[in-house]
């Protein structure tokens, strides 16, 4: 066997993901990762992570980024954007230079943790050191970590600016600047901070901007800061092809009844349920737990270590249902999620797009169900028009082939999120993910999947629960 082939034979490859995929990720020019002339150590990490061939966004952006061009890329959520910028970053970083050489900016702490783990997983043979830094964590621990070698820094804007302005993070050799979810990064919340961070980078740095939507603010930033950017637009249609979308028209007081019916009827692997406020997130999580289902919740008012714990355990499949606010709409990639439910219908098409994109990841199949009341009907129509999509009325029976994998064992386990430098895994499991007084009333940590064995109830037209269920809920307070 030639040396060319022998290294491949020694790789520890994961089980193949045999689930069908849509052409959102299959419609490529036929290139392989080896066609990009990546270093062997990087190819080893790519193949051992289960990547077989590049998706369209990876195929378009990786060679251009390695060539040194600025990039402005639009691609749908769940089509491989993270690897599209992580792979060029790992290829370009010089392990022997003990400086920060690439800065990856993301809008949320959960996405920072996830992105840093993709860097570590793909780059595990490259000798590249990656650090994640976000608000809500101890600054002293970041300072200690920065005294060691860091090649790639992944972080949220406020903390990165803090470290750079205090001269704790030296960005003078950082020649690669990456923004994921660029539309959010250049919104009013972050734009000024991003502009201030750029002052600490070398003047001749390379910029890679990735997003699903590009509002005017991104165009303004491009004109001001990017040099002849290579523009990639893979957004002929906005919604993922593998996601089937339905609405159920229900009165507000019937929503919980309808949700319970869905739980008993659908074959849910993992589900994310979205509410429009933190109060409603907590209340709904309590109601779901009262019904006997395992459930966690997450929102921006929780302490960071609690959010990390919930996110980590949900990714690992220790709980089936996660109720959250729009905190987790950005980029969170959990392959096992096959159902997204909008308990509260979102106000904008952009939010809707990001929410439903949590299912149907990487060309696989998923289901999005929207609970609509009388006040949401105009928003529903507006979002359908803006996205050029159709949200159909929910049928009495939903075809399992639309969202259930034939072989459940084919669903890959996600990259484990390694806890930050300052927290050992043991410490995290000792922490309560919620203050004790809330824990009793909101979400007892029921691990496992109690949905099995619940009597199958039909979903009536329009999602209204059958009469025998209404008696069961008569004693429930109105939601």
TrEMBL record:
The ranges of region (Disordered) come to 1-26, 418-479
Localization, UniProt: Cytoplasm, P-body
Give the reactions, separated by semicolons, that this protein catalyses. Answer: ATP + H2O = ADP + phosphate + H(+)
Transmembrane parts of this sequence: none
Q: Which terms under GO biological process does the entry name? A: cellular response to glucose starvation; cellular response to nitrogen starvation; deadenylation-dependent decapping of nuclear-transcribed mRNA; invasive filamentous growth; mRNA processing; mRNA transport; negative regulation of translational elongation; P-body assembly
The record lists the lineage as: Eukaryota, Fungi, Dikarya, Ascomycota, Saccharomycotina
Q: What is the top EC class of this enzyme, as a single word?
A: hydrolase
Q: Where is the Helicase ATP-binding domain?
A: 62-232
Q: Name one GO cellular component term.
A: P-body
- Cell wall biogenesis/degradation in keyword set: no
Give all residue intervals belonging to the Helicase C-terminal domain. Answer: 242-402
Record keyword DNA damage present: no
Q: Where is the composition biased (Low complexity)?
A: 418-461
| Residue ranges of every copy of the DEAD-box RNA helicase Q domain listed in the record | 31-59
Name of the protein described by the UniProt record: ATP-dependent RNA helicase DHH1
InterPro entries this protein is in?
DEAD/DEAH_box_helicase_dom, Helicase_ATP-bd, Helicase_C-like, P-loop_NTPase, RNA-helicase_DEAD-box_CS, RNA_helicase_DEAD_Q_motif
Keyword annotations for this protein, in alphabetical order, are: ATP-binding, Cytoplasm, Helicase, Hydrolase, mRNA processing, mRNA transport, Nucleotide-binding, RNA-binding, Translation regulation, Transport
One molecular function GO term is: ATP hydrolysis activity
Enzyme nomenclature, EC number: 3.6.4.13
The gene is: TDEL0C02100
Q: What positions carry the motif Q motif? A: 31-59
Q: Which family does it belong to?
A: Belongs to the DEAD box helicase family. DDX6/DHH1 subfamily.
For this protein, the record's Pfam families field holds: DEAD, Helicase_C
């Amino acid at each position: 066997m030639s040396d060319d082939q022998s290294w491949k034979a020694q790789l520890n490859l994961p089980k193949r993901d045999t689930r069908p995929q849509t052409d959102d990720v299959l419609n490529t020019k036929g290139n392989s990762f080896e066609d990009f002339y990546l270093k062997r150590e990087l190819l080893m990490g790519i193949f051992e992570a289960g990547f077989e061939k590049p998706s369209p966004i990876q195929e378009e952006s990786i060679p251009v980024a390695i060539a040194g061009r600025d990039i402005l890329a639009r691609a749908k959520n769940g089509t491989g954007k993270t690897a599209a910028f992580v792979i060029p970053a790992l290829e370009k970083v010089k392990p022997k230079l003990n400086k920060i050489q690439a800065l990856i900016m993301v809008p949320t702490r959960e996405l920072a943790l996830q992105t840093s783990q993709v860097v570590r997983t793909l780059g595990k043979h490259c000798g590249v050191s990656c650090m994640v830094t976000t608000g809500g964590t101890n600054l002293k621990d970041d300072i200690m970590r920065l005294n060691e070698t860091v090649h790639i820094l992944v972080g949220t804007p406020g903390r990165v600016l803090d470290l750079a302005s205090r001269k704790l993070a030296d960005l003078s050799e950082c020649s690669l600047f990456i923004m994921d979810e660029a539309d959010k990064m250049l919104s009013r919340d972050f734009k000024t901070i991003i502009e201030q961070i750029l002052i600490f980078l070398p003047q001749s740095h390379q910029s890679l901007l990735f997003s699903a939507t590009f509002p005017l603010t991104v165009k303004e930033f491009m004109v001001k800061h990017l040099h002849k950017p290579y523009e990639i637009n893979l957004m002929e249609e906005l919604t993922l092809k593998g996601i089937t979308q339905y609405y159920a028209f229900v009165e507000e007081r019937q929503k919980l009844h309808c949700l319970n019916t869905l739980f008993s009827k659908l074959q849910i692997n993992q589900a994310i349920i979205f509410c429009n406020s933190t109060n409603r997130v907590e209340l709904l999580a309590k109601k779901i737990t009262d019904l006997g289902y395992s459930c966690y919740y997450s929102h921006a008012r929780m302490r960071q270590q609690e959010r990390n714990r919930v996110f980590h355990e949900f990714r690992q499949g220790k709980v089936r249902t996660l109720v959250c606010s729009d905190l987790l709409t950005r980029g969170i990639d959990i392959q096992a999620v096959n159902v997204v439910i909008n308990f509260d219908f979102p106000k904008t098409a952009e939010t809707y797009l990001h929410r439903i994109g949590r299912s149907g990841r990487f060309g696989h199949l998923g289901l999005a169900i929207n609970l609509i009341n009388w006040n949401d009907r105009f928003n529903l129509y507006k979002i359908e028009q803006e996205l050029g999509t159709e949200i159909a009325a929910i049928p009495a029976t939903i075809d399992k082939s639309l969202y259930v994998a034939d072989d459940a064992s084919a669903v890959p386990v996600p990259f484990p999120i390694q806890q930050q430098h300052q927290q050992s895994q043991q410490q995290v499991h000792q922490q309560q993910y919620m203050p004790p007084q809330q824990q009793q009333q909101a979400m007892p940590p029921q691990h496992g999947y109690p949905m099995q064995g619940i009597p199958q109830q039909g979903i009536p037209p329009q999602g209204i629960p059958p009469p025998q269920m209404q008696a069961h809920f008569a004693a429930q307070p109105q939601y």
